[in-house]
Specification:
Pfam families: Acyl-CoA_dh_2, Acyl-CoA_dh_N. The structure is a single chain. The chain is α+β, with helices and mostly antiparallel strands and 400 residues long. The protein folds into three domains: 109 residues, Acyl-CoA dehydrogenase/oxidase, N-terminal domain (Butyryl-Coa Dehydrogenase, subunit A, domain 1, Orthogonal Bundle); 107 residues, Beta Barrel (Butyryl-CoA Dehydrogenase, subunit A, domain 2), CATH 2.40.110; 170 residues, Butyryl-CoA Dehydrogenase, subunit A, domain 3 (Up-down Bundle), CATH 1.20.140. The chain contains eleven helices and ten strands. Strand 2 and strand 3 form a beta hairpin. The N and C termini lie far apart (55 Å).
Length: 400
């Protein structure tokens, strides 16, 4: 049974989300009403397998659903992405027989909202290393000290997935990943006041000896990129669902641009702007770029679904990208977000000065889309990774 995006998120519901999005952007508040509506729809159980009691959507279906939600309320979609990244990673690990992430699916099934605490100040390695210190508590768990940034869902999460590094040079698997509950040892700052994506409320989180209980440890991994199922699941779900959100946002911008061009008239030329060749070319270029993004996203999401389900990848359809998985995932996210920014800018240029006003939905979309610049993998990281794949490390031939 498939999960259809339009059936799960009907137009009347999305109109309400769109109306509230403007209010939350203006007031810099979290969209609690959106969250409750999505809870009632079973959104938190979207990626929990049907045999465990969930909705049983594939990552491909989740990507399409997130594109649709982003067209109405981009910040709501981006915030909910964090829960879906965690459950998507747990689903991927579950499919491959790695049981450490199964409790996350149980949390989601019980209606607990999962958030993502991986980003840290100055930590360019992101998922593959951590500045947070994870000291043994002597009982099989860890006490975490560190700072996490861009913690979406900050006011409302029930469990926070974090990572930390076990001190010592002789530790074989120094990175530990797990989920923690909200306690007095977890401090959430009220520091989210941004250019765009304001309703995500992705605040800074400080861990002051927050306890990661033994039963909540998901995995331990080496430093650096690795093929651990949960790590691959996080990276893949994160990059592809981000790309989906920004593409859905930009698709809405093109829809608005088309409406504006069809009703806006040139007083001097006596034509609607839909007949202006420059406007036509700008909107067409935006649509062409987004069509390419959708095709790339859906191909790679299907490949990741197939990797988890064990589908035969020998034919012309799905592909196991082997050592190039991280390159492909980061590359699609980069291309899709850059295409989304470019598409929204083209729509703005085609739509006139009225949409420089804060009363315009298009103005809000133009700010929200720019958050894509800052999500991993960013422009510098992607180009650096591709350069290493093509040319090796700098200084390698000199023996440095």
């Amino acid at each position: 049974m498939t999960v259809d995006a339009a059936a799960l998120l009907p137009d009347p519901l999305l109109r309400g989300f769109r109306e509230r999005a403007a209010v939350h952007d203006r007031e810099n508040t979290f969209p609690r009403d959106d969250l409750e509506d999505l809870r009632e729809l079973g959104y938190l159980r979207l990626l929990v397998p049907r045999e465990l009691g969930g909705i049983g959507a594939s990552l491909l279906e989740a990507s399409r659903i997130q594109r649709r939600l982003a067209g109405a309320a981009p910040a709501t979609a981006l915030a909910m992405n964090m829960h879906l990244v965690i459950t998507g990673a747990a689903l991927h690990a579950h499919r491959l027989g790695a049981e450490g992430a199964d409790p996350l699916l149980e949390h989601a099934l019980a209606g607990r909202l999962l958030a993502f605490g991986i980003s840290e100040p100055g930590n360019e390695a992101m998922l593959f290393d951590s500045q947070t210190v994870a000291r043994s508590d002597g009982q099989g768990g860890y006490l975490l000290e560190g700072t996490k940034i861009f913690t979406s869902l900050a006011p409302v999460w029930d469990r926070l997935v974090v990572h930390g590094r076990i001190p010592g040079d002789d530790v074989d698997l120094p990175l530990v990943l797990g989920s923690i509950e909200r306690t007095d040892a977890v401090e959430t700052l009220e520091d989210w006041d941004t250019h765009g994506m304001r309703a995500t409320q992705s605040r800074t989180t400080r861990l002051h000896g927050a306890r990661l209980a033994p039963e909540d440890v998901i995995d331990r991994t080496p430093v650096g990129p690795n093929t651990d199922p949960f790590v691959v699941g996080i990276f893949g779900s994160f990059e592809l669902l981000l790309a989906s959100v920004y593409t859905g946002l930009a698709e809405r911008a093109v829809e608005l641009g088309t409406q504006i061009a069809s009703r806006r008239r040139s007083a001097t030329r006596g034509i609607v702007l839909a007949e202006d060749p420059d406007v036509r070319r700008r909107l067409a270029g935006a649509a062409i770029a987004l069509d390419g993004s959708v095709l790339q996203i859906e191909k790679l999401v299907a490949d990741l679904d197939a990797l988890g389900t064990g589908t035969d990848t020998g034919g012309p359809g799905t592909v196991d990208h082997g050592t190039r998985w991280f390159l492909q995932l980061s590359g699609v996210k980069h291309r899709a977000t850059e295409a989304a920014i470019g598409a929204v800018d083209q729509v703005l240029r085609a739509s006139g000065g009225a949409h420089f006003s804060r009363t315009s939905e298009l103005e809000r979309l133009s700010r929200d889309v720019r958050a894509g610049l800052y999500h991993p993998s960013d422009d510098e990281s992607v180009h650096g990774s591709y350069a290493r794949a093509l040319l090796g490390e700098i200084g390698a031939e000199r023996g440095e």
